[in-house]
Specification:
Layout: H1 2-8, H2 12-24, H3 27-34, H4 38-52, E1 57-60, E2 63-66, H5 68-88, H6 90-94, E3 105-110, H7 118-129, E4 134-139, H8 146-152, E5 157-161, E6 170-177, E7 179-184, H9 197-202, E8 204-208, H10 218-225, E9 231-236, H11 242-247, E10 252-256, H12 257-264, E11 269-273, E12 281-287, H13 295-310
Parallel strand pairs: 3-4, 3-5, 8-9, 8-10
Antiparallel strand pairs: 1-2, 5-12, 6-12, 7-10, 7-11
Helix pairs in contact: 2-3, 2-4, 2-5, 3-4, 7-13
């Protein structure tokens, strides 16, 4: 009976991962072939080892080699995948998506950390190409359990930045952005006076609310790894309002240059270098296996990628708020 329970937990994608790992003899090459991440494939390899009771891939010389048991599994895995292709008819998955005629509902959860103009630009592009498509845009907040909603099919796509995206999801990198600081025009850092790592840490900072209670954002996660901590005086759920808070105070916002550049010409704020050496902010789109092969979602992910990559080329400040110079 226990064996039946194990079989019930094995999905077709896990068999594809097994076949690809044994064929490629490399976690990184398998991840590339599967359009997945290396951590995700490593996690799936651990699960496969638990299910089979075998190491499957072992280190040998400068690489990895399949075990004898793994080689015996290669042909049965290929037969399962071939049978699934015949059963479900791969032509159904390769049918082109007719954007102009579609009335699909596409649901996306995203923060505005990337760029305040990203979602408006995405909506504009989608509606130009697919006027009948409906869009639902949900904020990526601490109350929104995006992993559960993706697994339940309540949302199709999530966009945000993570140092390490969740291993169980498909992902595609959108853009990377330099980490900078946004300060008021009258802030000492704007004049470059004594702007050191310690001065930066001692300043009062403003930061978004974490995605779940107790979590660290990418900035604080990196600082913690360096044994450092900044003074967060304000946490805000509305990231788009933070530049206005910065303009009215001595708060420091640490985020991507692309986001800050939208406000530098509209508010009395300045972009300054960050004394701490942060890695670039990397933004991803994440999706579940549920929608991986859906033609509408493949098309939608392409639109997200195209709009995100156009942002740095057409960056320009937002209009100044009323009453501002």
């Amino acid at each position: 009976m226990a064996r039946r329970t194990e079989l019930a937990t094995i999905d077709l994608h896990l068999i594809r991962v097994l076949h690809t790992l044994i064929s490629e003899r490399s976690v990184s090459r398998a991840a590339l072939r599967l359009a997945s991440s290396q951590p995700a494939v490593s996690a799936q390899l651990r699960r496969l080892r638990e299910l089979t009771g075998d190491a499957l891939l072992v280190r040998a010389g400068g690489g990895m080699q399949p075990t004898a048991a793994a080689l015996q599994l290669l042909e049965p895995a290929a037969q399962v995948l071939s049978g699934a292709d015949r059963l479900f008819n791969r032509r159904l998955r390769s049918q082109p998506f007719d954007a102009a005629a579609s009335e699909a509902l596409l649901r996306i959860a995203a923060s505005d950390y990337l760029d305040p103009l990203f979602l408006p630009a995405l909506v504009g592009q989608v509606k130009r190409l697919a006027p009948g498509v409906r869009l639902e845009l949900m904020p990526l907040t601490r109350e929104y359990d995006y992993r559960r909603h993706l697994a339940n099919g309540d949302v199709d796509l999530v966009i945000g930045n993570w140092l390490q995206p969740p291993a169980e999801l498909h992902l595609a990198r959108l853009i990377s952005d330099e980490v900078v600081c946004l300060v008021a025009a009258g802030h000492p850092a704007a004049a470059g006076r004594g702007w050191t790592v310690q001065t930066y840490l001692d300043c009062e900072h403003v930061a978004p609310m974490p995605l779940h209670p107790g979590a660290l954002g990418v900035i604080d996660e990196h600082l913690a790894a360096q044994g450092a901590e900044r003074r967060i005086a304000v946490r805000a759920s509305h990231f788009g309002l933070i530049p206005l808070m910065v303009a009215e105070s001595l708060l420091v916002l640490t985020t991507g240059r692309l986001f800050c550049s939208r406000y530098a010409g509209a508010l009395p704020v300045r972009i300054v270098r960050c004394p701490v050496a942060f890695p670039p902010l990397t933004y991803y789109q994440l999706w579940h296996e549920l929608t991986h092969q859906a033609p509408a979602m493949r098309w939608f992910r392409e639109q997200v990628r195209d709009v995100a990559r156009q942002l740095p080329q057409r960056a320009s400040p937002l209009p100044a708020p009323s009453g501002r110079a």
